[in-house]
């Protein structure tokens, strides 16, 4: 095991390698430090330029439908050259929640597809007729529609668990798990409603999740993004997901300071060095390991 500390773009960082090579670096902290005027100017200019481009160069979205049982899943794709990421939203959101991240991915050269799960957004329908397993199957239907262009999956909150389940059936080189929720296996096939809620509200029910095994069996790159002030997801979950990831690919854990479950993007916008670090980690995760 070796360690490293230093300053990059005005951010002090510490990393520990569990094995030789950069693949298993973990970023423990991001601390603002005093930087020279040229460094600050460079970081701010880069950050502002990225935001300007994301605003001015709005990527075109191509709308499409995917038939799923008696429903029609509403989806759209943004195309780019370096890879393609399937986005899976959380249990209280819809696909619009991911659009800012999709803008960023497009600026980094990666395409993306997002869809509204049953009971959400334009897809509509009765949420009580859906479940965790249904959400995974919906994601699989969209993944099959995309075919071989799909290279990664980004799941947010509940969607992170679906991303892990999807990785068992679809060949992916990258998983991005943001403010990740994980669940006891007994909740997987139960429709959303009182019975589902009763299972997940049992103290530490998530500790027996099959998510740990799912990430351990994944052979690609894994990026876990946690919110330091998350009151929905216990801090142990993102850390354990990171610890469970194998050393076959690159693994990183990024904890966003001052962010809660729903404010990661807003915090990144206020912290240019952290925004740049996030872009770097996204690139490393989404890029094919040689």
Structure report:
By secondary structure, the protein is of the alpha/beta class. The chain has one domain: Alpha/Beta hydrolase fold, catalytic domain (Rossmann fold, 3-Layer(aba) Sandwich), CATH 3.40.50. Helices cover 34% and strands 24% of the residues. The protein is built from nine helices and eleven strands. It has an eight-stranded mixed beta sheet with strand order 4-5-7-6-8-9-10-11, sandwiched between helices. A three-stranded antiparallel beta sheet has the order 1-2-3, with helices on one face. Helix 1 crosses helix 9 (272-286) and helix 3 packs across helix 4. The chain is globular and about 45 Å long. Keywords: Hydrolase.
Total helical elements = 9
Measured as a percent range, the helix fraction is 25-40%
CATH class: Alpha Beta
Strand order of the largest sheet: 4-5-7-6-8-9-10-11
Protein name: Alpha/beta hydrolase
GO molecular function: hydrolase activity
Keywords: Hydrolase
């Amino acid at each position: 095991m070796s360690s490293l500390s230093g300053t990059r773009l005005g951010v002090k960082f510490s990393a520990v390698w569990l094995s030789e090579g950069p693949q298993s670096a973990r970023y423990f902290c991001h601390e603002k430090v005093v930087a020279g005027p040229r460094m600050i100017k460079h970081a701010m200019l880069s950050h502002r330029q990225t935001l300007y481009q994301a605003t001015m160069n709005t990527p075109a979205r191509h709308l499409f439908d995917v038939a799923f049982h008696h429903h029609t899943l509403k989806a759209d794709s943004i195309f780019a050259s370096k890879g393609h990421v399937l986005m899976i939203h959380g249990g209280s959101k819809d696909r619009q929640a991911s659009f800012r991240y999709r803008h960023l991915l497009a600026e980094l050269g990666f395409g993306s597809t997002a869809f509204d799960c049953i009971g959400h957004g334009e897809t509509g329908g009765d949420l009580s007729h859906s479940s965790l397993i249904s959400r995974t199957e919906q994601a699989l239907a969209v993944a099959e529609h995309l075919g071989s262009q799909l290279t990664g999956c980004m799941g947010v909150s509940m969607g992170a668990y679906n991303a892990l389940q999807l990785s068992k059936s679809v060949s992916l080189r990258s998983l991005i798990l943001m403010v990740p929720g994980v669940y006891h296996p007994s909740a997987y096939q139960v429709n959303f409603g009182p019975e589902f809620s009763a299972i997940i509200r049992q103290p530490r029910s998530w500790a027996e999740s099959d998510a740990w095994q799912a990430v351990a069996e994944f052979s690609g790159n894994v990026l876990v993004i946690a919110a330091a002030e998350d009151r929905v997801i216990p801090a142990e979950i993102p850390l354990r997901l990171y610890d469970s990831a194998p050393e076959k690919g690159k693994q990183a854990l990024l904890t966003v300071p001052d962010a809660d479950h729903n404010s990661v993007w807003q915090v990144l916008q206020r912290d240019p060095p952290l925004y740049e670090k996030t872009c770097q980690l996204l690139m490393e995760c989404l890029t094919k390991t040689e």
